[in-house]
């Protein structure tokens, strides 16, 4: 065989092999591409289907939350109302004009019913204003009150009683309770106004009866006894302008 023919055959064989390999490579690329499209199609479908399956559950969850929200709101609204209704009126107060007259005083008022309270004031004085004028003593004046609106607010009417022991000096004479205290009872009217959540002002005035038995002495040191008197008093038995602190 000649060299030229051998080389020609080798070249033709190489060309055939290259053509075959090229066509095979093209076929493999097509199959790979087809495989990718076939594999990717279900994935795309699943991605699209996922939101569809998720939307019904999200709607149910949102509707459940919307339905559950009013129940929580109702509970929050009911709690403050119960606290207000269960609040009890308890107040501490002092009668300002009495303090100005050197008669110290303090009162405690407690609610018993929606419209009823008990007021328990105590008054005392242990100092002389001057040598010829002085009031020493202690007094109690409990009072039951009926409030027209509710306890501790607005107008009220009261029924009170009083007990007192005194040793008073006035001008030339000194007066002192003898054996039994001053005693009596009366009715009153008053009004309370709120200044803030805890502070308030209360005005009251009352009239009634008091019976007292007292000794009279000369208003000097170790003054002589003059007489013993019994007096029946009708008139003002209660008056005040008080500063009130509510707990």
Proportion of residues in β-strands: over 45%
- Overall residue-averaged pLDDT value: 79
Rg over alpha carbons = 51 Å
Q: What is the β-strand count?
A: 10
Helix content range: 25-40%
Give me the secondary-structure category.
alpha+beta
Q: In whole angstroms, how far apart are the ends?
A: 129 Å
Low-confidence stretches: 30-60, 62-66, 81-85
General form? elongated
Q: What characterizes the major β-sheet?
A: 10 strands, antiparallel
- Provide the succession of SSEs: HEHEEEEEEEEE
Count of runs of 4 or more consecutive helical residues? 2
Brief overview:
With 247 residues, the chain is an alpha+beta fold.
Helices and strands, with pairings:
Blueprint: H1 3-86, E1 90-95, H2 96-100, E2 104-111, E3 116-125, E4 133-140, E5 143-147, E6 154-170, E7 173-177, E8 182-194, E9 199-218, E10 225-246
List keywords for this structure.
2 helices, alpha+beta, 247 residues, single chain, 46% strand
Q: What does this 3D model show about the protein?
A:
The chain has 247 residues and is of the alpha+beta class. Helix content is 36%, strand content 46%. The chain has helices at 3-86, 96-100; strands at residues 90-95, 104-111, 116-125, 133-140, 143-147, 154-170, 173-177, 182-194, 199-218, 225-246. Mean pLDDT is 79; it is low at 30-60, 62-66 and 81-85.
């Amino acid at each position: 065989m000649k060299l030229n023919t051998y080389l020609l055959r080798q070249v033709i064989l190489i060309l055939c092999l290259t053509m075959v390999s090229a066509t095979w490579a093209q076929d493999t690329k097509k199959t790979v591409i087809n495989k990718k499209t076939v594999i990717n199609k279900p994935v795309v479908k699943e991605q699209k289907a996922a939101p569809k399956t998720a939307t019904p559950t999200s709607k149910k969850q949102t509707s459940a939350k919307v339905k559950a929200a009013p129940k929580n709101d109702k509970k929050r609204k009911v709690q403050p109302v119960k606290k207000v209704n269960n609040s009890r009126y308890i107040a501490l107060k002092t009668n300002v004009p009495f303090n100005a007259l050197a008669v110290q005083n303090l009162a405690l008022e407690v609610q018993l019913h929606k419209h009823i309270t008990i007021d328990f004031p105590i008054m005392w004085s242990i100092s002389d204003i001057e040598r010829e004028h002085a009031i020493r003593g202690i007094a109690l004046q409990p009072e039951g009150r009926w409030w027209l609106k509710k306890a501790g607010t607005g107008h009220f009417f009261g029924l009170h009683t009083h007990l007192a022991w005194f040793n008073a000096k006035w001008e030339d004479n000194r007066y002192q309770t003898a054996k039994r205290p001053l005693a009596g009872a009366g009715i009153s009217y008053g009004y309370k106004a709120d200044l803030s959540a805890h502070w308030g002002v209360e005005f009251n005035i009352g009239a009634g009866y008091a019976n007292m038995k007292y000794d009279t002495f000369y208003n000097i040191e170790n003054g002589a006894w003059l007489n013993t008197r019994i007096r029946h008093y009708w008139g003002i038995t209660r008056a005040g302008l008080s500063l009130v602190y509510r707990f």
